[in-house]
Automatic annotation (TrEMBL):
<dbReference type="GO" id="GO:0005524">
    <property type="term" value="F:ATP binding"/>
</dbReference>
<dbReference type="Pfam" id="PF07728">
    <property type="entry name" value="AAA_5"/>
</dbReference>
<keyword id="KW-0547">Nucleotide-binding</keyword>
<comment type="similarity">
    <text>Belongs to the CbbQ/NirQ/NorQ/GpvN family.</text>
</comment>
<dbReference type="InterPro" id="IPR027417">
    <property type="entry name" value="P-loop_NTPase"/>
</dbReference>
<keyword id="KW-0067">ATP-binding</keyword>
<feature type="domain" description="CbbQ/NirQ/NorQ C-terminal">
    <location>
        <begin position="181"/>
        <end position="264"/>
    </location>
</feature>
<dbReference type="GO" id="GO:0016887">
    <property type="term" value="F:ATP hydrolysis activity"/>
</dbReference>
<protein>
    <submittedName>
        <fullName>CbbQ/NirQ/NorQ/GpvN family protein</fullName>
    </submittedName>
</protein>
<feature type="domain" description="ATPase dynein-related AAA">
    <location>
        <begin position="34"/>
        <end position="168"/>
    </location>
</feature>
<dbReference type="InterPro" id="IPR050764">
    <property type="entry name" value="CbbQ/NirQ/NorQ/GpvN"/>
</dbReference>
<dbReference type="InterPro" id="IPR011704">
    <property type="entry name" value="ATPase_dyneun-rel_AAA"/>
</dbReference>
<dbReference type="Pfam" id="PF08406">
    <property type="entry name" value="CbbQ_C"/>
</dbReference>
<dbReference type="InterPro" id="IPR013615">
    <property type="entry name" value="CbbQ_C"/>
</dbReference>
């Protein structure tokens, strides 16, 4: 391992385990199996990977996937430097060489042809083909591929191909149980237990009306934002409006329903 590796996580991230995800991830890492984290946005997937990288003492290289992500963005490219053409590794190649955890966040967002470059890395070959250099790179034994995937966004256009998804061990995430989520919101949001638990109660109610128009419930992340605002002296109602109601929907009717739910908790 390189000294002062910027991809190492030096201090332990706060992570509250919600099931058997820690031993499962450890088992997958020991068996060198790629891992898929399934679950709604803002429920702790990224925090979990950070925590596991710290725990396993492996560097973590994260790539936020988007629809313009090309294979070369992951693998690398030749760049012109002082009239010389030099090869620069992309994040995936760096992770493969270094033995890092490579975390592809929201992988369905990436172009289908980009997703395909990870295929030879995620079966027993564990190789990365760098076509532009005519090089085939064998992955470092500690290299681990992790992807996140939100099944809630599933559509015909945006779904992972079976040939991709059947290369991963899946760990399913959801919003933590109320008691645990309250602890997370209080700790991360820096507020008292009572306010945290009121926010979590509100989130529970919002998540229940999901079917009636909201595409996704209130995430743990948004609850922490609301808590942060309360911590800054903003009233509970204003914090919930700014951090929960407004980000969740533009629909007047649903906003009214959410506003009533907030009022019930005042
Ligand atoms: P995702 O990657 O699923 O979109 P994140 O991992 O970014 O979501 O989670 C959002 C925030 O919620 C985190 O920054 C963290 O503060 C908090 N969080 C969620 N779940 C947990 C947990 N189990 N332990 C500690 N913090 C958590």
């Amino acid at each position: 391992m390189l000294p002062n590796n910027p991809y190492m996580i030096d201090s332990e991230p706060f992570y509250l385990n919600t099931g058997d995800e820690i031993p499962m991830f450890e088992a997958a890492a020991a068996a060198r199996l790629p891992v898929m984290l399934k679950g709604p946005t803002g429920c702790g997937k990224t925090r979990f990977v950070e925590y596991m990288a710290y725990r396993l003492k492996r560097p973590l290289i994260t790539v936020a996937c988007h629809e313009d992500l090309f294979a070369s963005d992951l693998i690398g490219r030749y760049l012109l430097k002082n009239d010389e053409t030099v090869w620069v590794d992309g994040p995936l190649t760096r992770a493969v060489r270094m033995g890092a955890i490579c975390y592809l966040d929201e992988v369905v967002e990436a172009r289908k042809d980009t997703t395909v470059v990870i295929h030879p890395l995620t079966d027993n070959r564990r190789v990365l083909s760098i076509d532009k250099k005519g090089e085939v790179l064998c992955a470092h034994p500690d290299f681990l591929m992790v992807i996140s995937y939100n099944p809630g966004y599933q559509s015909v256009l945006k779904d992972l191909k079976q040939s991709t998804r059947q290369r991963f061990v899946a760990l399913t995430f959801n919003y933590p149980e109320p008691k645990e989520e309250s602890r997370i919101v209080a700790t991360e949001g820096g507020i008292d237990a009572d306010t945290a638990s009121r926010l979590v109660t509100l989130a529970g109610k919002i998540r229940n009306i999901r079917e009636h128009g909201l595409t996704e419930g209130a995430s743990t992340r948004l609850l922490i934002y609301a808590a942060n605002l309360v911590g800054q002296g903003v009233t509970f109602k204003a914090a919930c409006t700014a951090a929960l109601l407004q980000p969740l929907t533009d629909d007047d009717r649903i906003q009214e329903t959410l506003s009533d739910l907030i009022d019930d908790l005042l």
